[in-house]
Request: fold
Amino acid sequence: MVHRTATRPPQEAPPPAPRQGLLRGIAPRVLGLWLLLAVVVAVCVLSIAVGTRPIGLGTVWQALIDPSTPGDETVIIRELRVPRTLLGVLAGSALAVSGALMQGHTRNPLGDPGLLGVTAGASFAVVLSIWLLGITTAGGYVWFAFAGALLGSVAVFLIGSAGRGAPSPVSLALAGAAISYLLYALVQAVTIRETTALDAYRFWVVGALAGRDAEVLTQVAPFIVVGLVLAMVNAPALNLLGLGEDVARGLGQRIWLARVVGLGAITLLTGAATAACGPIAFVGLVVPHVARAITGPDHRWLVPYSTLLGVVLLLLADVLGRVLARPGELQVGIVLAVVGAPFFIALIRRRRLVQL
Amino acid sequence: MSATAPVRATTPRSRPRRPLRLGRVSTTYRVRDVLVPIAVLLVLVLAAAVSLGRGDYPIGVPDVLGTLVGLGDETQRLVVLELRAPRIAVAVLVGVALGLSGALIQTFARNPLASPDILGVTGGAAIGAVSVIVLGGTGTTAAGVLGGIGVPAAALLGGMVVAFLVFGLAWRQGVDGYRLVLIGIALSAMAHAIVNYLLTRSAIWDAAAANVWITGSLNGRGWDQALPLAVALLVLLPAALALSRVLGVLQYGDETARALGVRVPLAQGVVVVVAVCLAAFAVSAAGPIQFVALVVPQIAVRLTAGSRPPLITSALLGALLLVSSDLVARTVLPESFPVGVITAIVGAPYLLWLLVRGRRRSTL
Reply:
């Protein structure tokens, strides 16, 4: 029944259906993007400066422009904080955009990268790599997680579209749920048998930016960049698909092409982000809703806004995790869930959600 | 129009109703609504009998059925009634509760992906249980310290608290199924994050014990778990069945339901309370056995070719899925896996098969 809510005929919809967001017209939206970009830069600086050992902004600047500056701070900044922040930038944008695409394609406000079997596939592959090959480092998981994400989403896509015609939102969502349950059951089967696998897996599954070196960054960055480009390419087609498949076809959209490009982008983005950080659920669910409240349902604006908002959310959560649990830290996945959930609930209660 | 176009979902093709007259009383019924539950019940009895007979001391199905009605020798009575029946009873009761709860929630939220997990029951229960296992134990697992009392009570409490938190937060002059599901997802995600965090903070053997509980297991369950669940079902089952007509009306949307004379907020509240209690008791007895509440109503609605998940068929089918999964877990596999692993491995391909067959006419 996913689409009884999604394709509700107009006469059933609440009369003043607010399909517009806060910012209307091109100029305010472009300005909004620039403002967001400034916020992103500010958050990046914050992420570099704040930590177990706080570092002044002057020192941060010195270390960034001149690698030969003496002192521990330079090493901390250049070796630890900058890669970590860049990873946050990549993962935040990737997760948020894949969430926006997912919600658009399934026309389901609950669309979450977890829904299409992507994170389940990645989790299963990681567990297998721990169990069978004894890999226990984030860098080692990356390729397995990526392959698992790819296989999971391809399986969901094939099964969801096994009927005639293009895959419908409901069949995709159901296939995603079924595959996810199956894969998580297999994960449980492995972790229950092998306590050593559970021991490594439980630290991966919380989702964290810490402990990843620069190598992970270069491994996943190309995939995320390609995924973001595909997402922007897919945005106009998503607007048409939102009118319903028949209308979209009537307007000249090739449904299959749009679906394949969209799912390709989702897989690349979620797979790469999950491979690098572990499953981080909340960004993909929350950010598109916030972005839609600002821009309305036009995906050509929704995708860039989601990119920047995702970065802001992920980095802020990471910084918060470092501040809250000093001298240790809370993993970013946990902070996001605990802080993000009440925020999301407030959003749902406050505003009428902009219709998809 | 392609076969997958959304329109098909909103106009499920129901089988015609037949009239039934008994003197002055008359009603209508659909043949499938009568035949399918009976068929499922028969298979359930057979599966339970097979399960009662299997084990280290195998007993044939006829002997098992005989023992159940009072025949059978001393040994058979001991093995069937004392040793194996409690576990099977828990399986049946948990299956009934989860199937019913899933059918209620999916009808109410008008979403095939809605399940007690979405309402936060399993998430809250997991927090309660894992906290007891991880924090309550004094070095050893909770089994030693808190026994069979601590974990189920904590799970029941946690599940209900989170579920009613979800419901309370979703309340704004009545409950919109859409808002409820979104808030439920948010709080469930939070709960799972907390559980994952607890797992990283605990000793590895506690984490392993918690991991088994999270999967849902019938190992070591007996009358202690069956009894509270049976009492709860004694109240909740009639309540759920009494809601059947209201659910049928709520399905058409809040406005139509109000026009037809249903007090919508009250009806919704009662549906959610019943569904949450059913799921919470089931989870506290056997842990969050995933998939049953999600998939059983979907299978039931396809079997009956109706427009919404049928309550009785869902309940019986839930029991059947759990009993047969438990049978597989105990006999086919080399080690005794938790039944939650099996329900997913048995149930997920079936849902996939349904999807591949393309019978997506009735999606609710």
Chain A touches chain B through 67 residues (CB under 8 Å). Confidence is low (pLDDT under 50) at residues 1-18 of chain A.
